[in-house]
Amino acid sequence: MDTISQIILQLALITVPAGAVLMTAIYFMRRMTEQETRNTRLELKKERQTFFLPNRLDAYQRAILLMERIHPNSLIMRHNNTTLPATALQLNLLESIREEYEHNLAQQMFISDETWDLVKRSKDETMKIINLAGQKLAPDASGMDLMNTIFTLVGEIGTLPSEIAVSALKKEVQQLF
Fold it and tell me: Is position 22 within any domain?
């Protein structure tokens, strides 16, 4: 028995320190791996920022330009054709809004969902304003009548949806820096 106890004791004297060294090595290796992972993630984040920041800024610029182009006053100035009947001008204005929006749809990839939703609602509300103005007119109304009615509605509304969206876009861009 005595020899078995001595063998067990010798094995314990060898295994316990070896186990402690192994556990310490595992602990430090795990910490080094975690640190390397953190550093790699940080580096990747920096690289993504470098790549995506110019694209994001461009997306915000284009979204603001979209909001300015579909602003009722801007639309009327670009489509100022008093010889058209009101219904034809109304269709031109609505088509212009749709085209502008569709041309900029990809920008939503770089803009937050909440802010893009404001952009989308702004487009929809601007179309509603134009449709409401068209509904208020007689069937034989001129393009000038439609323009005047739109200007009147815009004056009554106060802050337009496109102006609200522009403010949100500017605020979000400022948060990038």
Answer: no
67, 122 contact by CB (below 8 A): yes
Q: Which single residue is written with the structure tokens 């992972």?
A: 37
Q: Do residues 172 and 115 make contact, with C-beta atoms less than 8 angstroms apart?
A: yes
pLDDT of res. 6: 83
Q: Is residue 156 part of a domain?
A: yes
DSSP the chain: -HHHHHHHHHHHHHHHHHHHHHHHHHHHHHHHHHHHHHHHHHHHHHHHHHHHHHHHHHHHHHHHHHHHHHSHHHHHHHT--TTSBHHHHHHHHHHHHHHHHHHTGGGGGTS-HHHHHHHHHHHHHHHHHHHHHHHTS-TT-BHHHHHHHHHHHHHHH-S-HHHHHHHHHHHHHHHT-
Length of the chain: 177
Distance between CA atoms of residues 154 and 33, nearest Å: 61
Number of domains in the chain: 1
Q: What value does the mean pLDDT of the chain take? A: 90
On whether residue 134 sits in a domain, the answer given is yes
pLDDT at 87: 94
Residue type at position 101: Y
Which residues face 142 on adjacent strands? 85
Is 94 part of any domain? yes
For tokens 């969902």, name the residue: 113
For residue 84, give its domain range: 52-175
